[in-house]
Specification:
Two copies of one chain form a homodimer.
Chain A (H helix, E strand, L loop, with lengths): L5 E4 L8 H16 L5 H10 L1 H9 L8 H15 L7 H8 L11 H8 L4 E4 L5 H11 L9 H4 L6 H11 L6 E5 L2 H9 L3 E5 L21 E3 L2 H7 L3
Parallel strand pairs in A: 1-2, 1-3, 3-4, 4-5
Helix pairs in contact in A: 1-2, 4-5, 6-11
Chain lengths: 235, 235
């Protein structure tokens, strides 16, 4: 295939190990407070709240809200359910900021550096711009362009995100590739004319990942790492 | 002073030598076509059209228009006036794209690399995002965040640009510094609560630069290069 002019990346799960990082951060918080809990279950529950909370924004049931605030609301609910509260404002801020400090999968930084030689690279995530800046700064993601959901005031899979990014770049959708570990994200991107790369992340959801790490659509590329994607695109 | 959390840069004149680059590009175009003209005067005239054309957008006299399109309209007018036409669409595209290929002042890339160690760095320019990506990619500007005027759909000195950038970063205005070679840009930034750094660029307008390269306000820092700014901020 022709090398795309730009390769945009989903971030949570595709580039960073949100689950491992959040479990580690919650466990450290619990240890410091002497709280015992099933931190893996809490991390998974926190993440399960993600899509429904964005969907409420997407359907106009609540006004535009950035992910930090959706994370905070979901955390309060989970803390009540798991009886790990009460959490004060500082606790909440500390825990919500875990999502700004997620560690990358080991192949990511070197792979992005190689891809950057042949294409414009950037995040196309449901995280807001400040969160993307935190993750990039902390992890050394060498972005050429930084998108955040708050630039579009829409969450994926809304068309405004995928087509808005193409428009800002001055590129046609078929000149832009979305790389993601999630079939539904790629299906939306493909429906709007972008090309697609599936990145397999068999550990994203821990032992329960299963078939979610397998490609289920006619994606242009299937790769097991960002480096492998760079190989395929000549980077 | 306290190191700002983010340092945002004006680009044309502050980081890149638009005049030298545009004169060189126009001269090469003329040489290839056998056209003789005062390319420096044409470059200066092209740039003089910049502020009035943006002001028509700022006042709502024309709808939101990106800089490539403002540049194209101004070019057509200047080509008529200097009798260097007719320019066809390809000519126009080639010449408008000169603004995507401007060369940096010699201190910029190393200075940004040092500043990046102590602060979030990014462009805050009237160029659109695609143009910023072109300049960064070509010149190796190591941005942490990329703003373009089209993200705000406003041109400086509108408040929406300066305060919009702070808001996207999740920072208070006094945590953000604007670095620019232009007193009017810094005056606007300061009026909205940002801190300010004047970068002296005595060659921006060629021999006619004069006092425009001198600071005329109570700026927090006055520096003669991005490296010098990095020195002052501990980078």
């Amino acid at each position: 295939m022709v090398t795309p002019r730009a390769v945009l990346f989903d971030v949570f799960g595709t580039l960073v190990d949100w689950r491992g990082s959040v479990i580690a951060g919650l466990s450290a918080f619990g240890a410091a407070r002497g709280i015992t809990a099933d931190w893996a279950e809490i991390a998974d529950g926190w993440r399960r709240a993600y899509r429904p909370s964005m969907d409420r924004v997407r359907r106009g049931m609540v006004p535009w809200t950035i992910l930090d605030d959706l994370h905070r609301d979901a955390l309060m609910e989970i803390a009540r359910r798991h009886d790990i509260g009460p959490l004060d404002d500082d606790d909440c801020e500390q825990l919500v900021s875990l999502w700004h400090r997620l560690a990358p999968w080991p192949d990511v930084v070197a792979g992005l550096g190689r891809l950057k030689r042949v294409a414009i690279i950037g995040p196309l995530s449901n995280g807001h711009l400040a969160l993307q800046v935190s993750l990039a700064k902390r992890n050394g993601f060498p972005w050429d362009v930084t998108f955040g959901a708050d630039i579009f005031r829409h969450y994926k899979p809304d068309a405004e995100v995928y087509l808005g990014a193409c428009d800002f770049l001055g590129l046609a959708p078929d000149e832009v590739m979305l790389a993601a570990a999630h079939n539904d994200d790629l299906a939306a991107a493909a429906s709007f004319g972008l090309t697609t790369a599936f990145i397999c992340r068999p550990a994203e959801h821990g032992p329960a990942t299963g078939d979610r790490a397998k490609p289920s659509g006619p994606w242009d590329i299937v790769a097991d790492s960002v480096g492998n994607l760079a190989d395929r695109l000549g980077g």
